[in-house]
From TrEMBL:
SUPFAM superfamilies documented for this protein: P-loop containing nucleoside triphosphate hydrolases
Record domain ABC transporter: where: 21-266
Keywords: Antibiotic resistance, ATP-binding, Nucleotide-binding, Transport
Name listed for the protein in its UniProt record: ABC transporter ATP-binding protein
Major localisation: membrane
Location of the protein in the cell: Cell membrane
GO molecular function terms noted in the UniProt entry: ATP binding
Membrane topology note: Peripheral membrane protein
Family annotation (InterPro entries): AAA+_ATPase, ABC_transporter-like_ATP-bd, ABC_transporter_ATP-binding, P-loop_NTPase
């Protein structure tokens, strides 16, 4: 489902087929009042977003990550028109979000993992009916989209259940379907898998992949879960203290951060620390379980083969460094190393 009908009246002339999101030197400064002493209050500026620039092409799925308070939600709120930028230029599908928020609303979908946009007391299907009316979705398109969402997200048994009775994972699937019913060109997802169990996470990720492939929906995804990024996004942007510090592939980010992954192995019995596995060092032993750290940029396959060849292996798993530690490591070495970013391949870019 590409080739959507679009109303471009009044939109800036941009090549939408190419760049759906354009962000140029965008800033957001909040003025806050802070207590200074018993009676005095002083005004302070918080630069939540501090001059960021990027482009997202139609059909891309991009991860937007960073530590708490980095400026992710503020960016997304500016991209939806909820917040007005303090400076810079912003366009989504050629539209200035803050100037034409209502017009943009038809072309974007937003899902916040922590909140629901569904009607709490209504059964799921009634919420969808309201979405249909609000967005004036033609009958045939509505039925087709709903059918596909119900099928891919396993919603059939939930349609008659009031939203308040849904579990977090069920509600999240319901929310994602609601955001996609109007067939938006851009989908902003803020922590879509937070708090979900493994099965629900897999369902949500699988669905997003399908939607991206079938409809060409552009996705900007905020998450603290690196697996979301790994399974969905070929490109990741990292924001920290309001500035973009990385834009490129996940491998490049790992290489630039110099992070380590951990191979966790369960042996048949308690043994001395594993030795002689090239590129890995044993960092912890607890009974038959051992932890081996190795460079995040390196494949785990040769390590697994080496351990399996020399030790009685029962089970294993690979643990990723979390986003916070990756970013912390990125800064520990005095910032991003451009060579490391390049070494990760996938055009990683220090910014
Ligand atoms: N309405 C506001 N008024 C004042 N300061 C704000 C406001 N909204 C956000 N901030 C500040 O701006 C900075 C960026 O916040 P933002 O919510 O964008 O971060 P975030 O990356 O989304 O964090 P998290 O991962 O915790 O959701 C923080 O210092 C935050 O306290």
């Amino acid at each position: 489902m590409t080739g959507r009908a679009r109303d471009d009246e009044g939109a800036d002339a941009v090549d939408e087929a190419e760049q759906l999101i354009e962000v140029d030197g965008v800033e957001k400064v909040f003025t806050v009042r802070r207590r200074a002493g018993r009676l005095r209050r002083v005004r302070e500026e918080v630069r939540a977003v501090d001059g960021i620039s990027f482009r997202v092409a139609r059909g891309e799925m991009v991860g937007y990550i960073g530590p708490n308070g980095a400026g992710k939600s503020t960016t997304i709120k500016m991209l939806t028109g909820i917040l007005v930028p303090s400076g810079g230029r912003l366009r989504v599908a050629g539209i200035d979000p803050a100037q034409q928020r209502t017009r943009l609303a038809r072309r974007i979908g937003v899902v916040f993992g922590q909140r629901t946009t569904l009607w709490w007391d209504l059964p799921l299907k009634d919420s969808y009916e309201l979405v249909r009316r609000m967005y004036r979705i033609p009958d045939a398109a509505y039925r087709a989209h709903l059918e596909r969402c119900v099928e891919l997200l396993d919603l059939a048994p939930l349609l008659d259940v009031p939203v308040r009775q849904l579990s977090l994972g069920q509600r999240m699937r319901g929310d994602i379907a609601a955001a996609l019913l109007p067939d938006p060109e851009v989908l902003y997802l803020d922590e879509p898998t937070i708090g979900l169990d493994v099965v629900s996470k897999a369902k949500v990720r699988g669905f997003l992949r399908e939607v991206n492939a079938e409809r060409g929906t552009t996705v900007l995804l905020t998450t603290h879960d690196l697996t979301d990024i790994e399974q969905l996004c070929r490109r990741v942007m990292v924001i920290d203290h309001g500035r973009l510090v990385y834009d490129g592939g996940l491998d490049g980010l790992r290489a630039a951060g110099g992070g380590e992954r951990t191979l966790v192995v369960d042996l048949e019995r308690e043994l001395p620390p594993i030795e002689g596995v090239p590129g890995a060092r044993t960092v912890r032993v607890d009974g038959p379980r051992q932890w081996l750290a190795f460079p995040a940029s390196q494949s785990a396959a040769p390590l697994v083969a080496a351990v399996a060849a020399g030790y009685p292996l029962v089970d294993l798993s690979v643990r990723e460094p979390d986003i916070e530690s990756l970013i912390a490591e990125l800064y520990a070495g005095g910032g991003m190393r451009a060579d490391a970013a390049g070494a990760g391949g996938k055009d990683g870019r220090a910014l």
